[in-house]
Amino acid sequence: MRVSIKDVARAAGVSHSTVSRALTHSPLIPETTRRRVERAAKKLGYAPNAMARGLITRQSRAIGVIVTSIADPFVAEIVRGIEQLAGDNGYRVVLGTSHNDPEREVNAVKALREWRVDSVIVASSRVGALYQPLLKDIGAPIVLINNQNQQKGRVIHSVAVDDVRGGEVATQYLVSLGHRVIGHIRGPVGYAASKNRIAGYRRALNAAGIPYDRTLIQTGDGRAEGGAQILKLLDHDPIPTAIFCYNDITAIGALRELKRRGIRVPRDLSLVGFDNIPFALYVDPPLTTIAQPMFEMGKRALQMALTLMRDSRAQVADVVIQGELIARASTRVRG
Amino acid sequence: MRVSIKDVARAAGVSHSTVSRALTHSPLIPETTRRRVERAAKKLGYAPNAMARGLITRQSRAIGVIVTSIADPFVAEIVRGIEQLAGDNGYRVVLGTSHNDPEREVNAVKALREWRVDSVIVASSRVGALYQPLLKDIGAPIVLINNQNQQKGRVIHSVAVDDVRGGEVATQYLVSLGHRVIGHIRGPVGYAASKNRIAGYRRALNAAGIPYDRTLIQTGDGRAEGGAQILKLLDHDPIPTAIFCYNDITAIGALRELKRRGIRVPRDLSLVGFDNIPFALYVDPPLTTIAQPMFEMGKRALQMALTLMRDSRAQVADVVIQGELIARASTRVRG
DNA sequence: TTGTATGCGTTATCAG
DNA sequence: CTGATAACGCATACAA
Fold first, then answer.
1. Fewest Cβ atoms nearer than 10 Å: which of A271, B144, B215, B295?
2. What is the pLDDT of residue B102?
3. Could you tell me if A241 and A234 are in contact, meaning their C-beta atoms sit under 8 angstroms apart?
């Protein structure tokens, strides 16, 4: 930890600038001296100091990644995508988690700023008003993933799944199975995703000539508990034969509730989720869902960041990724 | 990003050293000037440069965290524990993932070294021989979580769950339910956890006066596919009435296989897992398991790191944490 | 092709 | 209490 470029220089019998050039593969340095320098560096166990380097190059080669919780499998998969591509390009991921605690989140942003991260990727679902200005102050390109606040700007870019189309595809699929009375458990109010998925749901109904009935929609909370709202839909007349849920967690919660009531899925009721979380495959029955390509989204976000880091004025269009229908056993033709 | 301490100094009408002192709350600086400096700093939107600071303080306030995959829910929960406590103490987590690719892992370690991370926590399951020396070269305290290679040293510390006791408790529980023929699907050969859980299994059998029968043990792979080994155990004579699985994933794989064969859990067979991954609660039936306190382990590891960062010669004992039996519906009294 | 000198933005060491 | 000034370890403009 204490061997510096000067020690290598001394050992190799050259000046420290020569060492610097040799180790960064400058074309100025001939093969022979480069070799000698490298040998000396290796022998001393030299590793350049990224902080010193960053101070002068004015880049940290760090990507700040802000998430609500790394323990959310959805988020984890995004981070995996980011991390992989970042690593391949010589960048490191610095984590900042918020756990929906504004204070924590603000602290994270401040720290990333002190670190002089070269870019920030936010997979936190909501970039609060309080916090967005702070973010901009970092002075590095910002990429938001599936952000639920509509606001964008010149410095803020985004990657998101096409929620409207996703909701449409899910509903279309149910229609194609012969269902005509299709309920929906929506996500939290104020989330763009909630609104957009409903929009897709309506669009599909409309295309199928099925009148829209707002009493077929109940409001969940995006968590398993919200799935209990399905009980209200069962009181609807006529009883729906299929339900499109805001997300997989909601669907899984609904599934549990149905099981308790002795209602069989998909025999009595078809169920569709959204996200394709890893668990969706393992519940009983395995859940039909719209897969969000989370790994891919992480990668695309980092790709965007790379472009912007190379040229901060680069014109990059916001990315909208299509989800994919994964048909599994929680749905079947209307009996 | 371009406003430095000198700009603040100029704006506040003091020297840059005064600014530094004021902002680090040095007792030398009187309230009044500190206020003035802080106002100037705020007005200019000044944020100290962590790289410059780290260069001179000789600490980065970064914790390197090496994991196989952040997308593993088990790992993610550990990282959450690390991150939380780290953040509370002014440290940031820098991620290094390997995905079992040695090259990636070595690269990660090298990068953490260049970053001069103040400590390294490794939640990768195996610290290969190739890679351990590299790790030591980082020259910062190292804490291994659930490491499967036994090697330790003066610089390498560890936090681990008590696998022997865990295996024992799981098996004891089955015994207490009246089971006498208890099978086991073990984990991968060469993993300390596999060996230790078996040891616990044997110890419990022994205490119950049940003779150990090695043909009641099959070797899985720690993944869902390994759960299929349960079919071999069903051929055993007498047929086991309970199976203790190496981990939850294995148990879930086994469950799937049993369902396919029309064997009912827990009516025909009781099943116990290990880990208590989030999914264990949602499979059908919910899985009885030994919970590893992953969040807690992450926190303990960071705690250890903090102690060692304060005093590198501190004597810290390796931590062994007890798992907890979570009794759910996959087990019942022998019928 | 190489070496010298400078500066990146801080904190720490001295004087005052 | 405050201000010069020196480091920290590196990359680079400029000289040789």
1. B215
2. 85
3. no
Same fold, A5-48 and A62-161+294-322: no
Torsional sign, CA A79, A84, A85, A89: positive
Q: Taking a C-beta distance cutoff of 8 angstroms, is the pair B54, B117 a contact?
A: no
Query: Which chain A residue is nearest to residue B62, measuring alpha carbons?
Result: A94
CB-CB contact of A331 with A266 (8 Å)? yes
According to DSSP, residue B288 is labeled: B
Is A206's pLDDT higher than 80?
A: yes
CATH match of B62-161+294-322 with 2.60.40.10: no
Which of B108, B140, B279 is the closest to A282 by Cβ?
B279
Q: Which residues of B touch A96 (CB under 8 A)?
A: 87, 92
Segments making up each domain of chain A, as ranges: 5-48, 62-161+294-322, 163-292
| Interface touch A116/B282, C-beta < 8 Å | no
Residue nearest to nucleotide C5 (CA to C1'): A17
Report CA(A2)–C1'(D12) in Å, whole number: 23
Name the packing angle between helices A192-207 and A163-176 (round to 10°): 40
Residue-level pLDDT at A1: 57
Mean pLDDT in residue range A247-254: 96
Three-state DSSP class for residue B326: strand
The answer to whether B99 and B69 are in contact (CB under 8 A) is: yes
Task: Output the six-digit token pair for B292.
Answer: 């590893």
| Smallest CA–C1' distance to D8, residue | B56
Tokens of B138: 């980082």
For A191, the 3-state DSSP assignment is: coil
Here the tokens at position A85 are 């591509």
Strand ranges of the sheet holding B270-272, from the earlier edge strand across to the other edge: B217-219, B182-186, B242-245, B270-272
Residues B167-190 pLDDT 10s: 999 999 999 999 999 999 999 998
R_g of chain B computed on alpha carbons: 26
Q: Which of B2, B5, B55, B70 to mutate to probe the A interface, most A CBs <10 Å? A: B70
- A chain contacts of residue B107, beta-carbon cutoff 8 Å: 87
* Dihedral sign (CA A38, A42, A44, A50): positive
Q: Per the confidence metrics, is the pTM higher than 0.85? A: yes
B153, with CB counted inside 10 A (0-12, 13-18, 19+), is exposed
Q: Which are the contacts of A7, defined by CB distance < 8 A and separation ≥ 6? A: A44, A46
Q: Which of A265, A262, A287, A264 is nearest to A276 (CA)?
A: A287
Pairwise CA distance, residues A82 & B97, whole Å: 11
List of residues 6+ apart from B152 with CB closer than 8 A = B158, B318
Name residues whose C-beta falls within 8 Å of residue A29's C-beta, 6 or more positions apart in sequence.
Answer: A18, A21, A22, A37
Query: How far is A245 from A185, CA to CA, in rounded Å?
Result: 5
Average pLDDT of every residue of chain A: 93
CATH classification for the domain delimited by B5-48, as one of 3.30.565.10, 1.20.272.10, 1.10.260.40, 2.120.10.80: 1.10.260.40
Q: Give the up-direction half-sphere exposure of residue A181: CA atoms within 13 A in the CB hemisphere.
A: 14
Residue B323 contacts residue B146 (beta carbons within 8 Å): no
How is domain B163-292 classified at the CATH fold level? Rossmann fold (3.40.50)
B180 min Cα distance to partner chain A (Å): 30
Burial of B333 (0-12, 13-18, 19+ CB in 10 A): exposed
A63 in Cβ contact with A91 (< 8 Å) = yes
CA R_g for chain A: 26
